Amino acid sequence: MSTDKDNREDGSMPDEPDELQISDTEKQRIINILNKMMELGIGSIYGEEEEGVPDALVDCASRIRACRAACCTFTFALTKDEVKKGMVKHNPDKPFFIARNAEGYCTHLDISTLTCTIWEDRPLRCRRYDCSEDGKVKDIPEI
Ligand code: SF4
Ligand code: SF4
Predict the structure, then answer these.
(1) Which residues line ligand 1 (CB under 6 A)?
(2) Burial class (CB in 10 A: 0-12, 13-18, 19+), 103
(3) What does pTM read for this prediction?
(4) Which of 78, 81, 114, 84 is nearest to 98 (CA)?
(5) Which domain holds residue 66?
(6) Ligand 2 pocket, residue 116 CB under 6 Å
(7) How many domains does the chain have?
(8) Of 19, 55, 64, 87, which is the most exposed, with the fewest CB atoms less than 10 Å away?
(9) CA-to-CA distance for 36 and 28, rounded, in angstroms?
(10) Tens-place pLDDT, residues 37-54
(11) Quick one: which ligand is closest to 74's CA?
(12) Is 19 within a domain?
C-alpha cells in the first residue's frame, strides 16, 4: 500500500536516509545516548579503518617538543582487530575508545619522554595520522 509520503506530486522519491538533515542539537543528543549506553555496558563501538592506507610519514622527533604529543590526547575507537589483539588499552567505561589518563593523554604515552611505549603495536589510527594535514595542529613548528 502506498502512502501520501511515497507519492509525491513531482514524482520524486522520499529522501534517502543519508540525505536526512540532523541538527547539531539532535546529533549531540544521539552522542549523549550512545555515551550513556556505553557507560552502562549496553553498547560498544569499534573504530573503522580503510584497507590499504599507508602509515603517515611525520618527523615527530623534530616537532615533539613543540607539539607535546598533541595527537596522543585524541579520542578514537579501536578497531575490532586491535581489541582482539589486546595490545592497546581501552577505556572500560567507554568500550572500545582508547584509554586516557587524568591528564588526557593516552595511557601508552611515556610522559617524561613523550614517546609511545607500544610503537610497534600502535593502532592504525595513530599510524595514519598526519598532523601536517590537520587544521588543528598543522602549524606546529619544527624545532
Ligand atoms: S604526529 Fe604530529 S602531533 Fe603527533 S607526535 Fe608527531 S609531530 Fe606531534
Ligand atoms: S598508542 Fe602511542 S601513538 Fe597512539 S595515542 Fe597512544 S601513545 Fe600516542
Answers:
(1) 58, 60, 63-64, 67, 69-71, 129, 131, 137, 140
(2) exposed
(3) 0.77
(4) 78
(5) 60-133
(6) yes
(7) 1
(8) 19
(9) 12
(10) 887 878 889 999 999 999
(11) 2
(12) no
Eight-state DSSP code of residue 5: T
Strand partners of residue 116: 109
Contact (Cβ atoms closer than 8 angstroms) between residue 75 and residue 100: yes
**For residue 106, what are the β-bridge partners?**
100
Show Cβ contacts of residue 38 under 8 Å, excluding neighbours closer than 6 positions.
44, 45, 93, 94, 95
Name the residue at shortest CA distance from atom 5 of ligand 1. Answer: 69
Per-residue pLDDT tens digits for 82-123:
999 999 999 998 999 999 999 999 999 999 999 999 999 999
In a domain, 79, yes or no: yes
28 lies in some domain: no
Concatenating the DSSP letter of every residue in 86-135 gives: T-S-B-TTSTTBBPB-TTSSBTTEETTTTEETTGGG--HHHHH--GGG-T
Best of 71, 116, 143 for a ligand 1 pocket test (most atoms within 8 Å of beta carbon): 71
Question: Which residue is it, cell 623534530?
Answer: 62
